[in-house]
Write a structure and sequence with these properties.
The complex is a heterodimer of chains A (131) and B (374).
Chain A lengths: L1 H25 L24 H11 L7 H21 L11 H14 L4 H12 L1
Chain B lengths: L22 H22 L18 E13 L2 E16 L3 E11 L1 E2 L11 E15 L2 E9 L5 H5 L23 E14 L2 E10 L12 E10 L4 E10 L5 E10 L6 E10 L2 E11 L7 H4 L2 E11 L13 E13 L2 E12 L2 E17 L5
Antiparallel strand pairs in B: 1-2, 1-17, 2-3, 2-4, 3-5, 5-6, 6-7, 7-8, 8-9, 9-10, 10-11, 11-12, 12-13, 13-14, 14-15, 15-16, 16-17
Classes of the chains: A mainly alpha (131), B mainly beta (374).
């Protein structure tokens, strides 16, 4: 009985802290930026459309869409790269800053081995991180 | 890590080394080597470029990535000072090769009863020193000393600047070998099974090494995981056949989930072997969605972890001598990029007695190019 009390009390305290935090979060509109200012948050910071999305969408509806195809493709790649960056890198650690391109090329190769990220993910993340 | 074993009990009880590659172990090992050789041959046959096909991609440069920290642990009232530095060296060669190594220098300074000063010695470990060959998009071949791919903590979450709590999980030594590393060969990779599902795997064979600080056990095993990028959910399992003295099996499961709607990390592992069994469950919540004191809140993270360890069939071969339960709560604060203040409080329950374990410290990571980075 004592042991149960000793386990239950800290568990309930933890639950209460988490609940209170979530309640506080729910009190405000979700318009403020998420994540630390120095980098994107490791998790949950991808909610909401990226500005590139609307750019790409408006471009697609434009009569001049054919002319800006490369730009749209680049924006789409960037969006996809950012998405995969957050999904893959944030699984273990905070999103790192953008290192110089050659450093990033090494880091992503290291992560490909260490975190077994896929070839497609690697290419898109590398492209995103080097922009 | 110096603060990794809160019970103060040595984490490893490695059986005495066996001699030679003879009998069933030798046959098994030879089969593994043969299979690895065949897989390597097959994998290298098609000239598939594993790296980016873009000819204008920047060439990778050698990189030094250093994690450092100073963690003070109060274990049952006894203070332990734990300075640590862990440099990672990455040397890319061409488009497909990578040499990577990590060495850890750490100390556990404590105050002997007869002294007023803290004393200890520096422990050195070669965590990994490996040569990677990216054969194709599905396969990477690794030889050398590598982190044993059993569960997710050892490979992904161990570095001091990554981990949310500075103590190791109690079950970390299960099936990871001495120094949590293996010496031999490994095949690994990750690829998309489906647009919504990715598979990652690792299979390895490790030879026996009794040379410190590169000691390892003879073992073979693997890990496989499924990752669902949509819900950011991953689960998988690990297996190992231990081939030193008493041959035995170990297995484990892991789980990780990062819901999109919340800055929350949920992770869990279970492991079972002749040295014991147990699990840990950890949740970490970044307070970035709290809109009061925003600047401070988005840098703060609260963590909770519960874990339980059960001794193996024989206490003599178990990682810990008694069943143990451990609850831990932490608060981390990112001062600036990769520089954190960390703290935690834990309560450990054992039949021999309960104790409080506090940690407080700083962790830092920096990256430097060993050449022109641009």
């Amino acid at each position: 009985m004592t042991a149960i009390r000793k386990f239950l009390v800290p568990s309930l305290v933890t639950l209460a802290v988490f609940s209170a935090t979530l309640w506080l979060a729910a009190q405000e509109p979700a318009s403020a930026p998420a994540g630390p200012p120095m980098a994107a948050s490791s998790t949950g910071s991808s909610a909401g459309p990226h500005p590139a999305t609307s750019v790409a969408s408006s471009n697609a509806a434009s009569p001049a869409a054919r002319k800006i195809e490369p730009v749209r493709s680049s924006a789409a790649d960037r969006l996809e790269g950012e998405k995969r960056f957050k999904a893959n890198c944030g699984r273990c650690h905070q999103a790192p800053p953008k290192f110089p391109p050659r450093v990033m090329a090494t880091a992503i190769r290291h992560m490909r081995v260490r975190a077994t990220i896929t070839d497609d993910d690697m290419k898109l993340i590398l492209k995103y991180m080097q922009q | 890590m110096a603060s990794g074993n809160p019970s103060g009990v040595p984490g490893h009880h490695r059986p005495a080394p066996a001699s030679g590659l003879r009998g069933p172990a030798g046959n098994f090992a030879n089969s593994v080597w043969l299979a690895a050789f065949l897989a390597l041959t097959i994998a290298c046959a098609p000239a598939v470029r594993a790296q980016s096909d873009d000819t204008d991609s920047p060439k990778p440069v050698s990189v030094l990535n250093v994690g450092a920290g100073f963690i003070t642990t109060f274990d049952g009232g006894d203070a332990h000072l734990g300075p640590l530095i862990s440099p990672v060296l990455l040397i890319p060669i061409g488009d497909r090769w990578l040499i990577e190594s990590r060495t850890t220098f750490e100390s556990d300074l404590s105050q002997p009863p007869w002294s007023n000063s803290f004393k200890g010695y520096v422990q050195k470990e070669v965590d990994y020193f490996q040569l990677d060959f990216i054969a194709n998009p599905y396969l990477t071949v690794t030889v050398g000393r590598f982190l044993t791919p059993f569960g997710i903590f050892n490979e992904r979450l161990y570095p001091i600047w990554i981990r949310n709590l500075q103590t190791d999980p109690l079950i970390l030594p299960i099936a990871t070998g001495p120094s949590n590393a293996s010496t031999g060969a490994m095949l690994r990779g990750g690829f998309a099974l489906h647009p919504k599902v990715e598979l990652n795997y690792a299979v390895y064979f490790s030879a026996l090494s009794t040379v410190s600080p590169v000691d390892s056990d003879r073992a073979a095993g693997g890990r496989v995981g499924l990752y669902f990028p949509g819900p950011r959910l991953e689960f998988g399992g690990s297996f190992q056949r231990h081939l030193v003295d008493v041959h035995s099996n170990a297995f484990g499961f892991h789980f990780a989930w990062q819901p999109r709607a919340l800055p929350l990390d949920l992770r869990a592992e279970y492991a079972r072997a002749f040295t014991g069994s147990g699990y840990w469950v950890e949740s970490a919540y970044r307070l970035s969605q709290v809109h009061r004191w925003e600047d401070a809140m988005r840098r703060a993270q609260i963590v909770a972890r519960m874990q339980q360890y059960f001794t193996g069939a024989s206490p003599a071969t178990s990682i810990l001598p008694v069943n143990t339960k451990f609850f831990e709560y932490g608060l981390n604060y990112t001062i600036f990029q990769d520089f954190r203040a960390v703290s935690s409080y834990g309560r450990q329950f054992t039949p021999a007695g309960n104790s409080n374990i506090w940690t407080v410290g700083l962790t830092y990571r920096f990256v430097a190019a060993l050449g022109r980075g641009e």
